[in-house]
Structures are given as C-alpha cells and as structure tokens.
Design a protein that fits this description.
Layout: H1 5-16, H2 19-27, E1 30-34, E2 44-50, E3 53-59, H3 69-73, H4 76-98, E4 104-120, E5 125-139, E6 144-146, E7 150-153, E8 156-166, E9 172-181, E10 186-191, E11 194-196, H5 203-215, E12 225-226, H6 227-231, E13 239-240, E14 249-259, H7 261-267, E15 271-272, E16 281-287, H8 288-294, H9 298-311
Parallel strand pairs: 3-4, 8-14
Antiparallel strand pairs: 1-4, 2-3, 4-5, 5-6, 5-7, 8-9, 8-11, 9-10, 9-16, 12-14, 13-14, 15-16
Length: 316
C-alpha cells in the first residue's frame, strides 16, 4: 500500500530517534542532541550581562533535560562571542561621544535562545552550539531595527599551507587533503589541512597537531610561520570564514620544507587521518596551478594570497 508523505516522514524521523540509532552514534564517539524552537517562551535558565543589560539566556523547548545551561555559558566560543559584543558596545560608546556621524546609538538585547548543542566524544565536550539572539539596534535617527541574530558557534580554527619544495629542481608543490564533506555534498573535497582550536588557545600547537593527524608529517611549533600574524593587524585574532552566521575565526600557518622527488612522490595518494575523529583522508600533491584549478577550498586561496605577500616581504 502506498504510504502518505506524512507517514513516511514520521517513520523517517522516528528511526533517527531510536535506541539502535543512538547506540550506533555512541559507538562512533559522537553524542548529538538537537532540538529547535522558534520562540523565546521557554523557562528562564540563566542570564549574562552585556554592558549594563541583564540578558536572559534560554534553552529551547526539549533541551532542558539533556544540557546544563551553565556549560553552554562557559563554552569558550560563547564567552568569546560575549567579549566581542562587549567590545563593540564600548567602541560605539566612545565614538558616539566624539562624533555626530556614527550611524547607530545602541544595541538592545532581549534574550538569547540556545537552540542546539553538539556533544563530542567520550570526553563529553561541547563541540558546536547554535543560538539565536533577539537584538535590535537604535539608529542615530532613533529608528528601531531588528538585526539578524542566528549564530553557529564553533570558535577558532587553524589552516595550514604545506609547501613542498623539490630539492632537484626547486619546484614547489602543495600537500592537500581529500576527504568527505557531507555539509557540501562532496565526498572528495580537496583542501588544505585544518582543524578546530581547543580551550588552550595555542594556535601553533594545534596547527602542528593537525598536520600530524591529517598528513602523518611531524613538525615542531617553531617550524610553522604564522601568516596571519604577518599580514593582519594585531587587534584581530584571525580571519572570519562565514561572518553572516558563524563565529569561526581561522588563523593561517605556513610550513615549507625541502624534499627529494622520491619523498614527494611517496606522499601521493597516501591514506591518513585521525581514527579518533573518524577521518578518512587521502593525501594529494599538486602544483600551485593545479591546486587552484581543482580545489574549491576558500581557505587555500586565502593562504596562498598571504604566502605571496610573505614571499614578497610586503605587509598589508
């Protein structure tokens, strides 16, 4: 008998809520909670201060039994987001006192709804948080306008440009990683090695760790060149990759090393990746020209641009 779309959808959702499915996810070291709500009508759980505003923080309906609101508030990327917002408030106050041309006067925060939380691994750490900020802006003309407030918080990350220079002929090659990226519907995404920051804030240490995990190459922190530090003003911690909806800020590093032709060829098509993080990675060695044509990775282009500045000994 033909099943109605509603019945099929109900059974589809039910299978993902089943004990069997959750056990499978736990075996892979991932625990995932996701609930959504479109309103700020859930019970007040906590609050944060933004300037002199006491802003309520809510858990979306259905999330209360599985997530501790204090863990979310103390989640490092959430705290960094609060700090950035506070800095903007302070900066605006200073400018409004010294200028009549600044286009907004005040941000008004009504509430923050925590909509979903991803818990990663056996260590039970928070990986990602999605929240919605109910915020309006008061312009210099006393107009009140609502601002987009959806935030996918994941925090800092690092991207590493690995340049292999052939000893025999001096030609440069890039070591890239090919891996599945379900988010973009691509099982063979070609990228520079990259990874998320931990709470220690040690960018170079994380970069070295990611190179080891994703390529098998062991390097020391001192062998990494911080391209972001070289190119960007010190007030910025990195480059924002998708500021319309995500807080992700990426810092770029360069590792340049000389290898023989035999050593370079040995890296081609080599399998790598962290088993703990369920990574399936195939190494690719390409010329810069080939990499630019065959990789849609924006991180690659940013890193190459900064590498070119570094080679030319010029700063922005």
């Amino acid at each position: 008998m033909f099943k109605t779309p509603r019945l099929m959808a109900t059974r589809f959702v039910s299978c993902f809520r089943s004990d069997k499915f959750m056990k499978m996810m736990n075996r892979n070291g991932i625990r995932y909670f996701h609930f959504s709500s479109s309103s700020l009508t859930t019970n007040l759980k906590s609050h944060v201060f933004i300037g002199d505003q006491k802003v309520p923080v809510f858990l979306a309906k259905g999330l209360e039994s599985s997530i501790d609101i204090d863990r979310v508030i103390n989640y490092s990327p959430f705290k960094s987001w609060l700090t950035n917002i506070q800095n903007v408030m302070n900066e605006n106050q200073e400018k409004s006192l010294n200028s009549n041309t600044y286009h907004w006067k005040e941000l008004l925060f009504e509430g923050i709804e925590i909509q979903s939380v991803d818990i990663f691994g056996s260590r039970n750490i928070i990986g990602f948080v999605k929240f919605k900020v109910n915020v309006t802006v008061k312009t210099d003309k006393d107009e009140i306008k609502k601002l987009p407030g959806i935030v996918f918080a994941r925090g800092g990350s690092v991207g590493i440009l690995i340049v292999l220079q052939c000893i025999e002929d001096g030609k440069e090659y890039l070591l890239l990683v090919q891996q599945p990226r379900i988010a973009i519907g691509n099982l063979h995404s070609l990228e520079i090695p990259a990874g998320s920051m931990d709470d220690n804030g040690n960018f170079s240490g994380v970069a070295a760790k990611e190179v080891k995990e994703e390529t098998g190459i062991e390097i020391k922190d001192a062998e990494l060149i911080d391209l972001t530090e070289y190119c960007l003003e010190s007030k910025f911690s990195g480059h924002y990759m998708s500021p319309g909806a995500s807080d992700e800020v990426m810092r770029f590093f360069l590792h340049k090393t000389q290898m023989t032709r035999v050593q370079i060829n040995a890296l081609k098509e080599k399998m790598a990746g962290s088993e703990y993080e369920n990574e399936i990675i195939l190494l690719k060695v390409l010329s810069i020209e080939e990499a630019v044509k065959t990789s849609p990775d924006a991180k690659l282009l940013v890193a190459l641009f900064m590498y070119n500045l570094y080679l030319n000994k010029s700063k922005i």
